[in-house]
Predict the structure.
Amino acid sequence: MIEILPLLLCDEVIFEQFPDMENMSIQELQHIITEELFYFEEEPKSDSVKEDTNTSIVSEKPKTLPKTVHIESISSPKEEVKSEPLAVRGNFEKGILVLHEEQELKPEVMDMLVKMINAVGHSMNEVGLLSSQELEGRTLTELYDLNAHIVLKFGRLKHPINALPASDYQIHTEGETEYLFADALPTIAEDKVLKGKLWNTLKVLFNISK
């Protein structure tokens, strides 16, 4: 761009005679103004100025819209699947519960158990049976829900009942339930001494005076 700079000492008369002088070209002005005219070309911008301009443009980042936050819907807690209650074998009429280590009792062992129950004044109709396998994975609460009055535990079971502070061949009472822990039934069937220990404890448990 070229800027035309008339001398500051130009006569006011000239401006009055030619009011459109600002719009005249250099050639036209030469016939009017006798003084020497000077014009200056605009200096190009330096590289540093260009860099500053570019930097300012880059620094002015467009405003970004806030990110959309997806809120996951809160799912209702899943209902716990309740296991089936313990299924006791036998009528379990009087709340006498026999827990045994073996999956199945052999006939001779079962015969000894029947005679023992009859000797304390009860029948097998009043007794319920559960094996260690049937108790595996079950809790004490599930066992308590059976509301047994007397629990006879024979041998080691895969159940938390083993942790009760009951000594073998000693009566242990918790609440309204009495517990008697002893060796496995097959072991007792082959040992007269253990049979005697069990019988003496059963007489106290069932109030047998003989």
Observations:
- DSSP finds eight helices and seven strands in the chain.
- The radius of gyration is 55 Å.
- Residues 96-205 form a domain with the Uracil-DNA Glycosylase, subunit E fold (CATH 3.40.470.10).
